[in-house]
Amino acid sequence: MKLLIFSIIILNLLPYSKISAQPESYNKKQNQLYLEIGGNSLVYSISYERLLSENFTLRGGFGITPGIIFAEGTFIHIPFTASYMFGSKRHKLETGLGATYFAGTDVEIFGLPSGDQSLVFLTGIAGYRYVSPGGFVFRIFFTPLYSSQADPNFYPAFGLSFGFML
User: Fold this and answer.
1) CA-CA distance, 163 to 53, in Å (whole number)?
2) What tens-digit pLDDT sequence spans the chain (166 residues)?
3) What are the beta bridge partners of residue 81?
4) Distance of CA 134 to CAs 36, 47, 102, Å?
5) By C-alpha distance, which of 59, 147, 154, 143 is closest to 101?
6) What is the model's pLDDT at position 13?
7) What is the set of domains in the chain, with CATH numbers?
8) 93 - beta bridge partners?
9) Hey, is 136 helix, strand or coil?
10) Looking at residue 136, what is its pLDDT?
11) Contact 100/78 with Cβ under 8 angstroms?
12) What pTM does this model have?
């Protein structure tokens, strides 16, 4: 009889217990949206980032640069990166790899002949990331770009990002 009463009490309390497969600290906002100036896109991009874990992210972006900025034609740039972060909850060192696709019309840039062009740059990331308690995200980073098709092959780029967590 005591076993029956004990079993009923335990079974009634079970729905109130916390059972999860992930640590509690992971239950936070996992999406980020921000404006990236410089960096992977050289000019700017609007980027979306998804936190796959507390320290690992995937990011994609999109930007259009008219020829009046620094090239002779209009081109689009689509950066994709994967990053791993080290550090505390608010201040992190970010490292990562990625690629940026550039395509344009009448483009005379990266040492390529004028006309419709497209090329892919391999990119790296080394930088600092700050996340405020309210969800504001600030990043400053070094992003070297490499492409065997471009002249020169290597571009040392720097960037800033401002955004927020969704």
Assistant:
1) 19
2) 666 666 566 656 655 555 555 555 545 789 999 999 999 888 889 999 999 998 999 999 999 887 765 556 778 899 999 999 999 989 999 999 999 998 887 666 666 666 667 889 999 999 999 999 999 999 999 999 998 887 788 989 999 999 999 8
3) 59, 98
4) 20, 19, 34
5) 147
6) 62
7) 30-165 (2.40.160.20)
8) 86, 128
9) strand
10) 96
11) yes
12) 0.76
Residue 24 token pair:
């509690």
Q: Hey, which residues does 31 pair with through a beta bridge?
A: 50
Q: Residue 161: which H helix or E strand, with range?
A: strand 154-165
Phi, psi of 41 (to 5 degrees): -95, -5
Token digits of residue 72:
């002779």
Residue 65 burial by Cβ neighbours in a 10 Å radius (0-12, 13-18, 19+)? buried
Please enumerate, as own/partner, the contacts of 141-145 that have beta carbons within 8 Å and a separation of 24 or more: 141/39, 141/94, 143/38, 143/39, 143/40, 145/40, 145/42, 145/100, 145/121
Tokens of 89: 């909850």
CB-based contact 100:120 (threshold 8 Å): yes
Q: Which residue has 């209009």 as its token pair?
A: 74
Q: Give CB contacts under 8 A, 24+ apart, made by 102-105.
A: 102/75, 102/76, 102/77, 103/75, 103/76, 104/71, 104/73, 104/74, 104/75, 104/76, 105/73, 105/74, 105/75
